[in-house]
């Protein structure tokens, strides 16, 4: 929206002592002509924008200028404290509220503080997706968030790995973004047992029409309990060897299905990687893609699992 762009334009000028029209256009993702028109409109509305000509010229705001802004709405006040900041707010469908709240707060900062915010934004970026492609948040995430906030008992259609979808009635405790994956931590409604569900495997939810009293445990405590239980269920020690140039790649691949606990240099220059995985099948699927770049030393069951994956692929694609 143009109104938001004008606010962003003022914010950029407060963050930086002077910016050219070309630089403003690049930062705002619009044409230079659009920026010049917006600057004229800001000036006409009373915003003290002035231009300095010459090789080092550009546009600036009169020192000490602070734009008038409305107070925070209730929603904006709440979303500012979402753990994970803007990426999490976007995933929950509240990114616009988050950015609006941040703009309002920045508007009341002093010139030096506003420039400090600009400096921070220039050198710090949080990229939860890492090197991979950005992951679209699960479509049901905002509805699950609303149910967690209202303490509503839910009927959840959930499809676990290798199973057909089935209905579960749960009391949702909260949502956790673990790495790139969203999880729902909940209690089974009939027994009170704690369970953790991947949100991307939730197929449908329905409000049961009933609310519950939150238990005497925080979400962080529930999540740590779930992590501990998972580690204690199965813990396979995996030892791999790889040349030093590909060891970081092998280590990263293994870390997607377990946790790397050590890397040591052997006498022949290779790296020995020790990791712990809770599911050999998942580790085998990932390591099959690494091919000859890694040698599996232990356990033998993992070697057999990788061979099974390779036999399956050969049977399926061998005649292609």
From TrEMBL:
Residues 2-57 form the HTH deoR-type domain. The keyword Transcription regulation applies. GO terms for molecular function: DNA-binding transcription factor activity. InterPro entries: CBASS_pafABC_assoc_protein (IPR051534), DeoR_HTH (IPR001034), HTH_11 (IPR013196), PafC-like (IPR028349), WCX_dom (IPR057727), WH-like_DNA-bd_sf (IPR036388), WH_DNA-bd_sf (IPR036390), WYL_dom (IPR026881). Gene3D superfamilies: Winged helix-like DNA-binding domain superfamily/Winged helix DNA-binding domain. The keyword Transcription applies. It comes from the Bacteria. PANTHER family: PROTEIN PAFC, PTHR34580. This is Putative transcriptional regulator.
């Amino acid at each position: 929206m143009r109104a938001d762009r004008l606010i962003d334009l003022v914010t950029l000028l407060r963050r930086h002592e002077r910016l050219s029209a070309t630089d403003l256009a690049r930062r705002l993702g619009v044409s230079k002509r659009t920026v010049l028109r917006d600057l004229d409109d800001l000036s006409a509305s009373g915003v003290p924008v002035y231009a300095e000509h010459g090789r080092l010229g550009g546009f600036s705001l009169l020192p000490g200028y602070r734009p008038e802004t409305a107070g925070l709405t209730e929603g904006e006040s709440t979303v500012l404290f979402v753990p994970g900041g803007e990426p999490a707010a976007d995933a929950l469908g509240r990114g616009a509220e988050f950015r609006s709240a941040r703009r309002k707060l920045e508007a009341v900062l002093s010139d030096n503080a506003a420039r400090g915010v600009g400096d921070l934004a220039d050198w710090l970026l949080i990229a939860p997706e890492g090197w991979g492609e950005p992951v679209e948040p699960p479509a049901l995430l905002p509805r699950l968030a609303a149910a967690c906030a209202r303490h509503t008992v839910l009927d959840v259609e959930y499809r676990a790995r290798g199973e057909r979808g089935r209905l579960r009635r749960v009391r949702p405790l909260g949502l956790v973004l673990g790495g790139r994956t969203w999880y729902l931590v909940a209690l089974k409604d009939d027994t009170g047992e704690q369970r953790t569900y991947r949100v991307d495997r939730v197929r449908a939810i329905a409000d049961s029409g009933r609310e519950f009293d939150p238990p005497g445990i925080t979400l962080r405590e529930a999540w740590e309990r779930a992590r501990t239980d998972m580690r204690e269920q199965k813990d396979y020690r995996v030892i791999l060897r790889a040349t030093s140039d590909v060891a970081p790649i092998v280590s990263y691949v293994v870390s997607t299905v377990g946790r790397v606990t050590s890397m040591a240099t052997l006498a022949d220059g290779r790296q020995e990687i020790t990791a712990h995985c809770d599911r050999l099948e998942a580790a085998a699927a990932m390591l099959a893609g690494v091919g000859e770049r890694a040698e599996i030393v232990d356990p033998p069951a993992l070697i057999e699992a990788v061979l099974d994956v390779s036999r399956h692929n050969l049977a399926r694609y061998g005649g292609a």
